[in-house]
Amino acid sequence: GAGVSQTPSNKVTEKGKYVELRCDPISGHTALYWYRQSLGQGPEFLIYFQGTGAADDSGLPNDRFFAVRPEGSVSTLKIQRTERGDSAVYLCASSAGRGAGMKQYFGPGTRLTVT
Amino acid sequence: AQSVTQLDSQVPVFEEAPVELRCNYSSSVSVYLFWYVQYPNQGLQLLLKYLSGSTLVKGINGFEAEFNKSQTSFHLRKPSVHISDTAEYFCAVSGDSNYQLIWGAGTKLIIKP
Question: Which residues of A fall within a CB distance of 8 Å from B95?
Fold first, then answer.
């Protein structure tokens, strides 16, 4: 079946611009996660949705970052006034339900480059 | 706060030799432990996980890991590696009260022919 998909696969933008990154989770998965992976590092948690609501947004670095999941499936990560330090691979994952040990299925990521 | 340490950024090993990738975590509460693999140009895939029960966990592609609570370790092992195992391996932890994964920095497994 279809896995987690993310679009675009690559995004190059200028400093100060606004970007949106999209995640399509596996159909029926209620939990959705966003992570950010900088070069040479492991992924870093950003935000977790259970259904339509953000259950934990403690990883968002500042108020330039925002994410939505209005219908409980597709999610969009929005970054305002991008900075060069935002350059990273943004990963989305989904899981079948809530629970700390649930397997997370990852998308291929969106590589964001801010010039 | 939880943290994960993968001491080796790269591990070179000859094909058909055994390998161990090290992972240590710090947490004062119950943890769930994971190993994920990222093949070149692909997304992260779950290799194996420890939730409870037997401390020796078997995963896909012949990998296994052992949970050692006293040493707070979860090292990944394979008795004989193949060229297709070339990838980056990440150790991660989550706890009872949080669903997010906390990740190590990753270990690149380099297979020498």
Answer: 100
